[in-house]
Amino acid sequence: MEGKRLLICVLVSLYHLSCAMAYSFNQTKPMVPAIIVFGDSIVDPGNNNDLKSPIVANHPPYGQNFYGHKATGRFSNGKIPTDLIASGLGVKDLLPPYVGYPLTPEDILTGVSFASGATGFDPLTPVIVNVIPMMDQLKMFAEYKEKLKAIAGEQKAAKIISEALYIICVGTDDVANTYFTTPFRVIDYDIPSYVDFLVSHASTFIKKLHEMGARKIGYVGLPPIGCVPSQRTVGGGLERNCEPKRNYAAQLYNYKIQVEIEQILKGPSFKGSKITYLDIYNILLDMIQRPGFYGFEEATKGCCGTGLIEVTKLCNNKTSTTCSDVTKYIFWDSFHPTERGYKAIVNNIFDNYLHALI
User: Fold this and answer.
1) Which residue pairs, CB below 8 angstroms and at least 24 apart, start in 183-191?
2) Distance CA 129, CA 355 (A)
3) Which of 145, 290, 265 is nearest to 213 (CA)?
């Protein structure tokens, strides 16, 4: 038994050592001039804060492990993936929101996030909860480009736009909320046809973003949606097992979007461009199935409240308490990972996809 424990400790130590190395090799010079992000709550640093929407995270205990213990609108206890990617690439420590934040010229030069929690490619998804649609995020990007030109000049701005890293992370809310929670889409679509509907919208978005100058795009696939705490609660029965239909939808989407990306890259206008599919399904599923290997103890509940259903306004410091040791938890609330959970996912992206992204 002691030998087994020692082996586990060594493996975990080696894992964290490799993660640390992934973040240390690029500190002298940024690997890209800017990072520009589109998507949902996974990569939203606070764009929803001033919206009349229930999908906000600008209240405690969100941000309890962030700088100054401040709830900035990030849907976690601390940093989110785009902060970790920005710092890992040596660009900056935090990637700010575009909306409702006092952006400095340096913020504009090095990139922002347009992401809005609970949005999706399905045009109905953002309407249900009054958040920013994906096409409106592209409009904001057009506005951002003009601000960049005013600061850097046309030539330098064009260089930043062409060399920046773009991240697209969206689709989970379409599946978990719009399709499986509301009656609006399930009447007209089975899972394969709804996935095709989402992929069609995703394809249009990628092409429009490319037309606007993006040449290095990291496209984040869907996670194992049926295994996040809230989906276990609403669809996993009394034992709160992973819900298979949601996971099937995610897997099918991930397969079809990869096929679509391959087709897009065959277009003559995409010659020399990079669109890299980033798989987060398998790493998160492995973390959930083998939490101990990654140094976690709890994989089925969030740290906030009961961990079964609390998210956004239900995760608050008036009706919810938080777990005693957040580092033991993969999930912060019933939908979003902890900063430590995100670090494991981002480290996996760096280990497996960095060469293709940059």
Assistant:
1) 184/124, 185/122, 185/124, 191/245, 191/248, 191/249, 191/252
2) 37
3) 145
182: amino acid identity, one letter: T
d(CA 342, CA 330): 8
pLDDT in tens, 233-281: 999 999 999 999 999 999 999 999 999 999 999 999 999 999 999 999 9
E strands within the chain?
Answer: 35-39, 165-169, 216-220, 274-278, 298-302, 329-331
Residues 6+ apart with CB under 8 A from 64: 71, 77, 78, 322, 326
Q: In the CATH hierarchy, which top-level class contains the domain 29-226+234-280+338-357?
A: alpha beta
Sorted by where each begins, the domain ranges of the chain are: 29-226+234-280+338-357
Query: pLDDT by residue (tens digit) across 147-156?
Result: 999 999 999 9
**Cβ contact 194:188 at 8 Å:** no
Q: Compute the average pLDDT of residues 17-46.
A: 76
Q: 225: which DSSP letter?
A: G
Distance (Å, whole) CA 132 – CA 53? 10
Nearest alpha-carbon partner for 242 in 253, 233, 255 = 233
Residue with tokens 């405690």: 60
Average pLDDT over residues 217-242: 98
pTM above 0.85, yes or no: yes
Neighbours of 328 (CB within 10 A): 16
DSSP state of 41: G
In whole angstroms, what is the distance from residue 78 CA to residue 146 CA?
31
Tell me what the mean pLDDT of segment 182-209 comes to.
97
Q: Which residues contact 31 (CB under 8 A, 6 or more apart)?
A: 89, 90, 91, 358
Q: What residues are labeled active site?
A: 41, 333, 336
The tokens for 304 are: 């906030």
Beta strands 165-169; 35-39: pairing state: parallel
CA 30/CA 107 separation, integer angstroms: 14
Joined together, the tokens standing for residue 160 give 């930043």
